[in-house]
Amino acid sequence: MYPILLTIGAFHLYSFSVFIILAWALYSFLFWRSLRAEGVSEEHIFDTTFWATVGAFVASRLGFVAFHWDIFSPTLLKIPAIWVAPGLSFYSSFLAGVGISLVLARRYKMRLGWLLDAFAASIPLTIIIGSIASLLDGSEVGAPAHLPFAIRYVGHEGLRHPYQLYVILAMGLLGIGVGYLGRRAKKDRWAYGLVGIWFFLLLSALMFGLEFVKESNIYWKSLSVNQWVLIALFGQSFGVYYVLGGGKEHIRNGIHSIVRESRNAYRFMKEHVIGVQKRLTQSR
């Protein structure tokens, strides 16, 4: 862990702050580049990014406060004093930022598909940078583990899963996958937003699995709160895919294919059994 990058007198430059700002800057650039390629005006992109950032920050803080009320209940002045009682909620920030962006996109008459594809192009690398910030700061802790590559977190006993490294690897693979889908989408002329829908489906599935190797203090029905959020995100993404992304047709065709292949397999087995029975009868 390396929470402080630089100290000059009473001034401390925190690694978490530096990398979070870097992640935001990178996200803003990639988000802008993706939407500009579709002809969206700079003013609308700036407004969307600005208000989504403000909303994401406020929601991130309020989400942390809601799930750690015991820290803030003695004095509410700690809520805005992030330097006194630090803490942010990633998924509160994520959902608020995406939600505000979707609302503003409708207001500015942006195509929903453009926005979804812009998320797919900008979020994976952003999460990678954010995970580096989390690793250096030790703000997220892996579950106990006895593995050759397990690491130690400051303030926690024993060896633990390198959760942030898992996230970096998963987001790297997801980014490669999104890039491949993007190239295929252009070649095969997929509908706008289909790459973005697949991104959210894969993101929620990957992060859901990684939650099992992360320490969490808030559970409900044997799953962490984050996992329930991810289940909801996956369900919503699948709903959009089913209604708008051609999922209904794909699922119907898949079911028909399964039924057809099952019938063919049944006929083959039936003919095979009948043939065996005939040979046995003739041999007698």
From TrEMBL:
Top-level lineage group: Bacteria
Segments crossing the lipid bilayer: 12-32, 44-69, 81-105, 112-136, 163-181, 190-213, 225-244
Record's keyword terms, sorted: Cell membrane, Membrane, Transferase, Transmembrane, Transmembrane helix
GO molecular function: phosphatidylglycerol-prolipoprotein diacylglyceryl transferase activity
Pfam families per UniProt: LGT (PF01790)
Cellular component aspect of the GO annotation: plasma membrane
Single biological process term from Gene Ontology: lipoprotein biosynthetic process
Family classification: Belongs to the Lgt family.
Database matches in PANTHER family: PHOSPHATIDYLGLYCEROL--PROLIPOPROTEIN DIACYLGLYCERYL TRANSFERASE, PROLIPOPROTEIN DIACYLGLYCERYL TRANSFERASE
Entry protein name: Prolipoprotein diacylglyceryl transferase
